[in-house]
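Bug report (template v2)

What were you trying to do?
Predict the complex of my protein with adenosine-5'-triphosphate.

What happened?
Run completed; filing so the output is reviewed.

Input:
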Amino acid sequence: MRLSRFFIPILKENPKEAEIVSHRLMLRAGMIRQQSQGIYSWLPLGKKVLDKVNNIIREEQNRAGAIELSMPTLQSAELWQESGRYDAYGKEMLRIKDRQDRPMLYGPTNEEMITDIFRSSVKSYKDLPLNLYHIQLKFRDEIRPRFGTMRSREFMMKDAYSFDLTREGAEHSYNKMFTAYLRTFDRLGLRAIPMRADTGPIGGNLSHEFIILADTGESEVFCHKDFVNFDIPAENTDFDSVDGLKGIFDKWTSLYAATSEMHDEAAFNAIPEGERLSARGIEVGHIFYFGTKYSEPMGAKVQGPDGKEHFVHMGSYGIGPTRLVPAIIEASHDENGIIWPESVAPFDVVVINMKAGDEACDGTCELIYAALTKAGKDVLYDDTDDRAGTKFATADLIGVPYQIIAGPRAVANGEVEVKDRKTGARETMTIEAAINRFVA
Ligand code: ATP
Ligand code: MG
Protein backbone atom coordinates (compact mmCIF):
# COMPACT_ATOMS: atom_id res chain seq x y z
CA MET A 1 0.00 0.00 0.00
CA ARG A 2 1.32 3.42 -0.98
CA LEU A 3 0.80 5.88 1.85
CA SER A 4 0.01 8.62 -0.71
CA ARG A 5 -3.03 6.60 -1.80
CA PHE A 6 -4.04 5.19 1.57
CA PHE A 7 -6.42 6.76 4.07
CA ILE A 8 -4.88 7.40 7.48
CA PRO A 9 -6.26 10.62 8.98
CA ILE A 10 -3.41 11.18 11.47
CA LEU A 11 -4.00 13.72 14.24
CA LYS A 12 -1.04 15.92 15.17
CA GLU A 13 -2.54 17.09 18.45
CA ASN A 14 -3.61 14.98 21.38
CA PRO A 15 -7.41 14.73 21.35
CA LYS A 16 -8.84 16.28 24.52
CA GLU A 17 -11.56 13.68 24.96
CA ALA A 18 -9.14 10.75 25.34
CA GLU A 19 -8.48 9.85 28.98
CA ILE A 20 -6.33 6.77 28.43
CA VAL A 21 -3.35 6.11 26.19
CA SER A 22 -4.98 3.53 23.91
CA HIS A 23 -7.89 5.83 23.12
CA ARG A 24 -5.49 8.71 22.44
CA LEU A 25 -3.28 6.60 20.16
CA MET A 26 -6.18 5.04 18.25
CA LEU A 27 -7.53 8.50 17.48
CA ARG A 28 -4.10 9.96 16.66
CA ALA A 29 -3.22 7.03 14.38
CA GLY A 30 -6.50 7.45 12.50
CA MET A 31 -7.79 3.99 13.44
CA ILE A 32 -11.28 4.95 14.62
CA ARG A 33 -13.76 7.77 14.51
CA GLN A 34 -16.62 8.31 16.94
CA GLN A 35 -19.90 8.69 15.04
CA SER A 36 -22.12 9.23 18.06
CA GLN A 37 -21.61 8.53 21.73
CA GLY A 38 -20.05 5.07 22.10
CA ILE A 39 -20.50 4.23 18.39
CA TYR A 40 -17.42 4.04 16.20
CA SER A 41 -16.31 3.66 12.62
CA TRP A 42 -13.20 1.56 12.14
CA LEU A 43 -11.05 3.41 9.62
CA PRO A 44 -8.76 1.41 7.30
CA LEU A 45 -5.76 1.09 9.63
CA GLY A 46 -7.98 0.08 12.56
CA LYS A 47 -9.97 -2.30 10.38
CA LYS A 48 -6.80 -4.12 9.35
CA VAL A 49 -5.83 -4.72 12.98
CA LEU A 50 -9.37 -5.72 13.96
CA ASP A 51 -9.49 -8.24 11.10
CA LYS A 52 -6.21 -9.79 12.25
CA VAL A 53 -7.48 -10.08 15.81
CA ASN A 54 -10.70 -11.69 14.56
CA ASN A 55 -8.77 -14.15 12.43
CA ILE A 56 -6.68 -15.34 15.36
CA ILE A 57 -9.84 -15.73 17.44
CA ARG A 58 -11.47 -17.63 14.56
CA GLU A 59 -8.51 -19.98 14.06
CA GLU A 60 -8.42 -20.89 17.73
CA GLN A 61 -12.20 -21.37 17.93
CA ASN A 62 -12.03 -23.67 14.91
CA ARG A 63 -9.09 -25.57 16.36
CA ALA A 64 -11.17 -26.24 19.48
CA GLY A 65 -13.98 -27.63 17.33
CA ALA A 66 -16.36 -24.67 17.37
CA ILE A 67 -18.26 -24.00 14.12
CA GLU A 68 -18.79 -20.52 12.71
CA LEU A 69 -22.15 -19.13 11.60
CA SER A 70 -23.61 -15.66 11.46
CA MET A 71 -26.65 -14.43 13.30
CA PRO A 72 -28.32 -11.04 12.75
CA THR A 73 -27.88 -7.98 14.95
CA LEU A 74 -31.64 -7.34 15.07
CA GLN A 75 -33.74 -9.79 17.01
CA SER A 76 -37.41 -10.22 17.69
CA ALA A 77 -38.56 -9.48 21.25
CA GLU A 78 -40.58 -12.70 21.27
CA LEU A 79 -37.55 -14.93 21.82
CA TRP A 80 -36.52 -12.85 24.79
CA GLN A 81 -40.01 -13.02 26.24
CA GLU A 82 -39.71 -16.81 26.13
CA SER A 83 -36.54 -16.83 28.20
CA GLY A 84 -37.86 -14.14 30.53
CA ARG A 85 -35.01 -11.76 29.80
CA TYR A 86 -36.98 -9.19 27.79
CA ASP A 87 -38.19 -7.44 30.90
CA ALA A 88 -35.20 -8.36 33.05
CA TYR A 89 -32.56 -6.83 30.76
CA GLY A 90 -33.39 -3.22 31.53
CA LYS A 91 -32.13 -0.06 29.90
CA GLU A 92 -28.99 -1.55 28.38
CA MET A 93 -31.19 -3.14 25.72
CA LEU A 94 -31.96 -0.97 22.71
CA ARG A 95 -35.60 -1.63 21.89
CA ILE A 96 -36.93 -0.81 18.44
CA LYS A 97 -40.29 -1.16 16.68
CA ASP A 98 -40.63 -2.09 13.03
CA ARG A 99 -43.27 -0.60 10.70
CA GLN A 100 -45.84 -3.18 11.79
CA ASP A 101 -45.25 -2.04 15.35
CA ARG A 102 -43.60 -5.34 16.25
CA PRO A 103 -41.10 -5.08 19.11
CA MET A 104 -37.52 -5.75 18.02
CA LEU A 105 -34.18 -5.23 19.70
CA TYR A 106 -30.52 -4.77 18.77
CA GLY A 107 -28.97 -7.91 20.24
CA PRO A 108 -26.80 -7.43 23.35
CA THR A 109 -25.97 -11.18 23.24
CA ASN A 110 -27.38 -14.28 21.50
CA GLU A 111 -28.27 -17.05 23.97
CA GLU A 112 -31.96 -16.94 23.00
CA MET A 113 -31.37 -16.90 19.27
CA ILE A 114 -28.85 -19.74 19.28
CA THR A 115 -31.17 -21.80 21.51
CA ASP A 116 -33.90 -21.24 18.95
CA ILE A 117 -31.62 -22.36 16.11
CA PHE A 118 -30.65 -25.42 18.12
CA ARG A 119 -34.17 -26.50 19.09
CA SER A 120 -35.43 -26.13 15.54
CA SER A 121 -33.15 -28.83 14.19
CA VAL A 122 -31.21 -30.84 16.76
CA LYS A 123 -33.24 -33.70 18.21
CA SER A 124 -30.77 -36.43 19.20
CA TYR A 125 -27.82 -36.77 21.55
CA LYS A 126 -25.95 -38.21 18.58
CA ASP A 127 -25.58 -34.69 17.18
CA LEU A 128 -23.82 -33.55 20.37
CA PRO A 129 -21.52 -32.07 21.45
CA LEU A 130 -22.10 -28.96 19.36
CA ASN A 131 -20.47 -25.55 19.66
CA LEU A 132 -21.60 -22.71 17.38
CA TYR A 133 -20.09 -19.23 17.30
CA HIS A 134 -20.20 -15.98 15.41
CA ILE A 135 -18.28 -12.73 15.41
CA GLN A 136 -20.88 -10.01 15.28
CA LEU A 137 -21.75 -6.51 16.47
CA LYS A 138 -23.67 -6.17 19.70
CA PHE A 139 -25.38 -3.19 21.27
CA ARG A 140 -25.60 -2.37 24.95
CA ASP A 141 -26.75 1.07 25.95
CA GLU A 142 -23.98 1.37 28.54
CA ILE A 143 -24.62 3.99 31.20
CA ARG A 144 -21.05 5.24 30.84
CA PRO A 145 -19.46 4.45 27.50
CA ARG A 146 -15.82 5.54 27.70
CA PHE A 147 -12.22 4.96 26.73
CA GLY A 148 -13.03 4.71 23.02
CA THR A 149 -13.80 1.19 21.87
CA MET A 150 -12.78 -0.21 25.26
CA ARG A 151 -16.31 0.37 26.55
CA SER A 152 -18.55 1.37 23.69
CA ARG A 153 -22.27 0.97 23.10
CA GLU A 154 -21.93 -0.80 19.78
CA PHE A 155 -19.09 -3.32 19.99
CA MET A 156 -17.99 -6.57 18.45
CA MET A 157 -18.14 -9.88 20.24
CA LYS A 158 -17.10 -13.38 19.40
CA ASP A 159 -19.74 -15.39 21.16
CA ALA A 160 -19.75 -19.18 21.15
CA TYR A 161 -22.46 -21.43 22.56
CA SER A 162 -21.97 -25.07 23.52
CA PHE A 163 -24.62 -27.80 23.77
CA ASP A 164 -24.12 -31.09 25.62
CA LEU A 165 -26.24 -33.93 26.89
CA THR A 166 -24.70 -34.00 30.36
CA ARG A 167 -22.99 -31.77 32.86
CA GLU A 168 -19.72 -33.74 32.41
CA GLY A 169 -19.91 -33.17 28.66
CA ALA A 170 -20.56 -29.49 29.19
CA GLU A 171 -17.53 -29.25 31.48
CA HIS A 172 -15.35 -30.68 28.73
CA SER A 173 -16.81 -28.15 26.29
CA TYR A 174 -16.00 -25.46 28.84
CA ASN A 175 -12.42 -26.68 29.14
CA LYS A 176 -12.04 -26.61 25.35
CA MET A 177 -12.95 -22.94 25.30
CA PHE A 178 -10.80 -22.27 28.37
CA THR A 179 -7.80 -23.78 26.56
CA ALA A 180 -8.62 -21.99 23.30
CA TYR A 181 -8.76 -18.68 25.18
CA LEU A 182 -5.32 -19.19 26.73
CA ARG A 183 -3.95 -19.77 23.22
CA THR A 184 -5.87 -16.88 21.65
CA PHE A 185 -4.65 -14.24 24.09
CA ASP A 186 -1.11 -15.56 23.90
CA ARG A 187 -1.12 -15.23 20.11
CA LEU A 188 -2.33 -11.66 20.51
CA GLY A 189 0.77 -10.94 22.59
CA LEU A 190 -1.22 -10.74 25.83
CA ARG A 191 -1.06 -12.56 29.12
CA ALA A 192 -4.67 -12.89 30.23
CA ILE A 193 -5.34 -14.37 33.67
CA PRO A 194 -8.43 -16.57 34.13
CA MET A 195 -10.19 -15.29 37.22
CA ARG A 196 -13.04 -17.00 39.00
CA ALA A 197 -16.03 -14.83 38.25
CA ASP A 198 -19.44 -14.14 39.60
CA THR A 199 -21.96 -16.67 38.36
CA GLY A 200 -24.95 -14.52 39.17
CA PRO A 201 -28.22 -15.94 40.47
CA ILE A 202 -27.62 -19.52 39.24
CA GLY A 203 -25.29 -20.78 41.97
CA GLY A 204 -22.86 -23.65 41.62
CA ASN A 205 -22.02 -23.05 38.00
CA LEU A 206 -18.68 -22.28 36.42
CA SER A 207 -17.48 -18.95 35.15
CA HIS A 208 -14.14 -17.31 34.41
CA GLU A 209 -13.26 -13.84 33.26
CA PHE A 210 -9.99 -13.44 31.37
CA ILE A 211 -8.27 -10.32 32.57
CA ILE A 212 -5.23 -8.42 31.34
CA LEU A 213 -3.39 -6.50 34.01
CA ALA A 214 -3.43 -2.76 33.31
CA ASP A 215 -3.58 0.28 35.58
CA THR A 216 -6.37 1.76 33.50
CA GLY A 217 -8.52 -1.39 33.81
CA GLU A 218 -11.97 -1.18 35.33
CA SER A 219 -11.79 -4.50 37.20
CA GLU A 220 -10.06 -5.02 40.52
CA VAL A 221 -8.18 -8.31 40.64
CA PHE A 222 -6.41 -10.48 43.20
CA CYS A 223 -4.13 -13.27 42.07
CA HIS A 224 -0.92 -15.22 42.47
CA LYS A 225 1.94 -13.56 40.66
CA ASP A 226 3.11 -16.84 39.10
CA PHE A 227 0.53 -16.66 36.31
CA VAL A 228 3.09 -15.10 34.00
CA ASN A 229 5.30 -18.21 34.25
CA PHE A 230 2.70 -20.74 33.17
CA ASP A 231 3.08 -22.58 29.87
CA ILE A 232 0.51 -21.86 27.19
CA PRO A 233 -1.10 -25.03 25.73
CA ALA A 234 0.60 -26.03 22.46
CA GLU A 235 -0.93 -25.82 19.00
CA ASN A 236 -1.18 -29.62 18.81
CA THR A 237 -3.17 -29.89 22.06
CA ASP A 238 -5.70 -32.71 21.74
CA PHE A 239 -9.03 -30.98 22.28
CA ASP A 240 -10.82 -34.34 22.39
CA SER A 241 -8.81 -35.50 25.39
CA VAL A 242 -11.07 -35.01 28.41
CA ASP A 243 -8.29 -35.69 30.93
CA GLY A 244 -5.74 -33.65 29.00
CA LEU A 245 -7.89 -30.54 29.03
CA LYS A 246 -8.90 -31.09 32.63
CA GLY A 247 -5.18 -31.19 33.44
CA ILE A 248 -4.69 -27.80 31.78
CA PHE A 249 -7.75 -26.35 33.52
CA ASP A 250 -6.72 -27.72 36.95
CA LYS A 251 -3.17 -26.47 36.59
CA TRP A 252 -4.23 -22.95 35.67
CA THR A 253 -6.97 -22.75 38.26
CA SER A 254 -4.84 -24.18 41.07
CA LEU A 255 -3.43 -20.70 41.64
CA TYR A 256 -5.63 -18.13 43.30
CA ALA A 257 -7.16 -15.56 40.96
CA ALA A 258 -10.42 -13.71 41.49
CA THR A 259 -12.14 -10.46 40.69
CA SER A 260 -13.33 -8.32 43.58
CA GLU A 261 -16.86 -9.81 43.50
CA MET A 262 -15.42 -13.30 44.08
CA HIS A 263 -12.53 -12.27 46.28
CA ASP A 264 -11.87 -14.59 49.23
CA GLU A 265 -9.72 -12.72 51.69
CA ALA A 266 -8.65 -15.87 53.58
CA ALA A 267 -7.56 -17.77 50.48
CA PHE A 268 -5.67 -14.74 49.20
CA ASN A 269 -3.94 -14.24 52.52
CA ALA A 270 -2.86 -17.89 52.46
CA ILE A 271 -0.56 -16.99 49.55
CA PRO A 272 2.92 -16.08 50.84
CA GLU A 273 3.23 -12.31 51.19
CA GLY A 274 5.67 -11.68 48.34
CA GLU A 275 3.67 -13.77 45.87
CA ARG A 276 0.37 -11.91 46.13
CA LEU A 277 -0.68 -9.54 43.44
CA SER A 278 -3.57 -7.11 43.71
CA ALA A 279 -3.96 -4.93 40.69
CA ARG A 280 -6.35 -3.53 38.14
CA GLY A 281 -7.23 -5.23 34.90
CA ILE A 282 -9.24 -5.22 31.68
CA GLU A 283 -11.78 -7.98 31.10
CA VAL A 284 -11.25 -9.25 27.56
CA GLY A 285 -13.16 -12.53 27.74
CA HIS A 286 -15.82 -14.21 29.82
CA ILE A 287 -16.85 -17.86 29.73
CA PHE A 288 -19.84 -19.36 31.41
CA TYR A 289 -21.46 -22.72 32.05
CA PHE A 290 -25.13 -22.19 32.86
CA GLY A 291 -26.66 -25.65 32.57
CA THR A 292 -30.30 -25.64 31.48
CA LYS A 293 -31.04 -21.98 32.19
CA TYR A 294 -32.19 -21.32 28.61
CA SER A 295 -32.87 -24.83 27.35
CA GLU A 296 -35.65 -25.40 29.90
CA PRO A 297 -37.79 -22.30 29.34
CA MET A 298 -37.18 -22.47 25.59
CA GLY A 299 -37.68 -26.21 25.26
CA ALA A 300 -34.29 -27.17 23.80
CA LYS A 301 -34.09 -30.91 24.39
CA VAL A 302 -32.69 -33.99 22.73
CA GLN A 303 -33.43 -37.66 22.93
CA GLY A 304 -30.77 -39.39 25.05
CA PRO A 305 -29.39 -42.94 24.73
CA ASP A 306 -32.04 -43.94 27.30
CA GLY A 307 -34.78 -42.96 24.83
CA LYS A 308 -35.93 -40.12 27.10
CA GLU A 309 -35.86 -36.38 26.41
CA HIS A 310 -33.25 -34.27 28.15
CA PHE A 311 -32.81 -30.52 28.32
CA VAL A 312 -29.37 -29.71 26.95
CA HIS A 313 -26.58 -28.29 29.10
CA MET A 314 -25.25 -25.07 27.67
CA GLY A 315 -22.35 -22.69 28.03
CA SER A 316 -21.52 -19.35 26.44
CA TYR A 317 -18.11 -17.93 25.70
CA GLY A 318 -17.44 -14.29 24.84
CA ILE A 319 -14.41 -12.37 23.65
CA GLY A 320 -14.46 -8.66 22.77
CA PRO A 321 -12.31 -7.94 19.67
CA THR A 322 -13.09 -4.21 19.68
CA ARG A 323 -11.95 -4.08 23.33
CA LEU A 324 -8.91 -6.26 22.63
CA VAL A 325 -7.43 -3.81 20.15
CA PRO A 326 -7.13 -1.00 22.75
CA ALA A 327 -6.11 -3.59 25.39
CA ILE A 328 -3.17 -4.62 23.19
CA ILE A 329 -2.17 -0.95 22.88
CA GLU A 330 -2.41 -0.44 26.65
CA ALA A 331 0.04 -3.34 27.00
CA SER A 332 2.35 -2.33 24.16
CA HIS A 333 3.24 1.30 23.41
CA ASP A 334 5.85 3.94 24.21
CA GLU A 335 5.95 7.73 24.18
CA ASN A 336 6.13 7.74 20.37
CA GLY A 337 3.13 5.55 19.70
CA ILE A 338 1.85 2.03 19.29
CA ILE A 339 4.11 -1.05 19.18
CA TRP A 340 2.07 -3.82 17.52
CA PRO A 341 2.88 -7.46 18.17
CA GLU A 342 3.70 -8.93 14.75
CA SER A 343 0.61 -11.17 14.85
CA VAL A 344 -1.82 -8.25 14.64
CA ALA A 345 0.26 -5.46 13.07
CA PRO A 346 -1.61 -3.62 10.29
CA PHE A 347 1.48 -3.98 8.08
CA ASP A 348 4.52 -6.23 8.38
CA VAL A 349 6.95 -3.49 7.42
CA VAL A 350 6.98 0.16 6.35
CA VAL A 351 9.40 1.38 3.66
CA ILE A 352 10.28 5.02 4.25
CA ASN A 353 11.48 7.04 1.28
CA MET A 354 13.43 9.93 2.82
CA LYS A 355 13.64 11.86 -0.42
CA ALA A 356 10.68 11.18 -2.67
CA GLY A 357 11.46 12.44 -6.18
CA ASP A 358 15.13 11.54 -5.90
CA GLU A 359 15.79 8.97 -8.59
CA ALA A 360 18.04 6.71 -6.52
CA CYS A 361 15.78 6.79 -3.44
CA ASP A 362 12.63 6.18 -5.52
CA GLY A 363 14.27 3.30 -7.41
CA THR A 364 15.50 1.61 -4.24
CA CYS A 365 12.16 1.94 -2.46
CA GLU A 366 10.18 0.67 -5.47
CA LEU A 367 12.53 -2.33 -5.70
CA ILE A 368 12.14 -3.21 -2.02
CA TYR A 369 8.37 -2.57 -2.06
CA ALA A 370 7.92 -4.85 -5.08
CA ALA A 371 10.17 -7.63 -3.75
CA LEU A 372 8.52 -7.78 -0.31
CA THR A 373 5.01 -7.53 -1.72
CA LYS A 374 5.77 -10.35 -4.13
CA ALA A 375 6.98 -12.44 -1.19
CA GLY A 376 3.55 -12.04 0.40
CA LYS A 377 4.45 -9.35 2.93
CA ASP A 378 1.95 -6.62 3.71
CA VAL A 379 4.05 -3.51 3.05
CA LEU A 380 3.26 0.15 3.62
CA TYR A 381 5.36 2.37 1.36
CA ASP A 382 5.72 5.96 2.56
CA ASP A 383 6.14 7.61 -0.85
CA THR A 384 4.82 11.02 0.29
CA ASP A 385 6.88 14.19 0.13
CA ASP A 386 6.48 14.94 3.83
CA ARG A 387 9.52 15.98 5.85
CA ALA A 388 11.71 13.16 7.21
CA GLY A 389 10.70 14.04 10.79
CA THR A 390 7.01 13.68 9.94
CA LYS A 391 7.60 10.33 8.26
CA PHE A 392 9.49 8.94 11.25
CA ALA A 393 6.82 10.22 13.63
CA THR A 394 4.05 8.62 11.56
CA ALA A 395 5.86 5.29 11.29
CA ASP A 396 6.48 5.20 15.05
CA LEU A 397 2.91 6.31 15.85
CA ILE A 398 1.18 3.63 13.78
CA GLY A 399 3.47 1.00 15.27
CA VAL A 400 4.47 -1.15 12.27
CA PRO A 401 7.06 -3.61 13.70
CA TYR A 402 9.86 -2.81 11.20
CA GLN A 403 10.89 0.22 9.19
CA ILE A 404 13.18 0.15 6.16
CA ILE A 405 14.60 3.64 5.79
CA ALA A 406 16.06 4.73 2.44
CA GLY A 407 17.95 8.04 2.55
CA PRO A 408 20.13 9.51 -0.22
CA ARG A 409 23.46 8.96 1.55
CA ALA A 410 22.92 5.29 2.36
CA VAL A 411 21.31 4.57 -0.99
CA ALA A 412 24.38 6.00 -2.76
CA ASN A 413 26.32 3.17 -1.05
CA GLY A 414 23.71 0.60 -2.03
CA GLU A 415 22.46 0.50 1.56
CA VAL A 416 19.36 1.13 3.70
CA GLU A 417 18.65 1.19 7.41
CA VAL A 418 16.36 -1.29 9.14
CA LYS A 419 14.76 -0.15 12.38
CA ASP A 420 13.06 -2.38 14.92
CA ARG A 421 10.09 -0.40 16.28
CA LYS A 422 10.09 -2.26 19.60
CA THR A 423 13.75 -2.01 20.57
CA GLY A 424 14.56 1.09 18.53
CA ALA A 425 17.68 -0.70 17.24
CA ARG A 426 18.83 0.45 13.78
CA GLU A 427 21.06 -1.51 11.47
CA THR A 428 22.57 -0.46 8.17
CA MET A 429 22.71 -3.19 5.55
CA THR A 430 22.75 -3.71 1.80
CA ILE A 431 19.44 -3.48 -0.05
CA GLU A 432 19.61 -7.19 -0.77
CA ALA A 433 20.24 -8.04 2.88
CA ALA A 434 17.27 -5.89 3.91
CA ILE A 435 15.00 -7.73 1.48
CA ASN A 436 16.29 -11.13 2.57
CA ARG A 437 15.76 -10.27 6.19
CA PHE A 438 11.99 -10.17 5.60
CA VAL A 439 11.67 -12.71 2.80
CA ALA A 440 13.84 -15.49 4.25
P1 ATP B 1 -18.12 -5.62 31.46
O1 ATP B 1 -18.08 -6.28 32.82
O2 ATP B 1 -16.83 -5.05 31.02
O3 ATP B 1 -19.28 -4.68 31.30
P2 ATP B 1 -19.63 -7.82 30.57
O4 ATP B 1 -19.38 -8.71 31.71
O5 ATP B 1 -20.91 -7.11 30.48
O6 ATP B 1 -18.43 -6.78 30.43
P3 ATP B 1 -19.84 -10.03 28.75
O7 ATP B 1 -21.29 -10.06 28.67
O8 ATP B 1 -19.14 -11.06 29.55
O9 ATP B 1 -19.36 -8.59 29.21
O10 ATP B 1 -19.25 -9.93 27.26
C1 ATP B 1 -18.16 -10.68 26.77
C2 ATP B 1 -17.04 -9.77 26.31
O11 ATP B 1 -17.50 -8.74 25.45
C3 ATP B 1 -16.34 -9.04 27.44
O12 ATP B 1 -15.38 -9.86 28.05
C4 ATP B 1 -15.71 -7.88 26.69
O13 ATP B 1 -14.48 -8.31 26.09
C5 ATP B 1 -16.70 -7.59 25.60
N1 ATP B 1 -17.55 -6.43 25.96
C6 ATP B 1 -18.60 -6.42 26.79
N2 ATP B 1 -19.14 -5.19 26.88
C7 ATP B 1 -18.40 -4.39 26.08
C8 ATP B 1 -18.45 -3.00 25.73
N3 ATP B 1 -19.39 -2.19 26.23
N4 ATP B 1 -17.53 -2.52 24.86
C9 ATP B 1 -16.59 -3.32 24.34
N5 ATP B 1 -16.48 -4.64 24.62
C10 ATP B 1 -17.38 -5.18 25.47
MG1 MG C 1 -18.31 -10.21 32.14
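What did the reviewer find?
The pocket of magnesium ion (ligand 2) is lined by residues 209, 283, 286 (CB under 6 Å). The first helix runs from residue 21 to 28.
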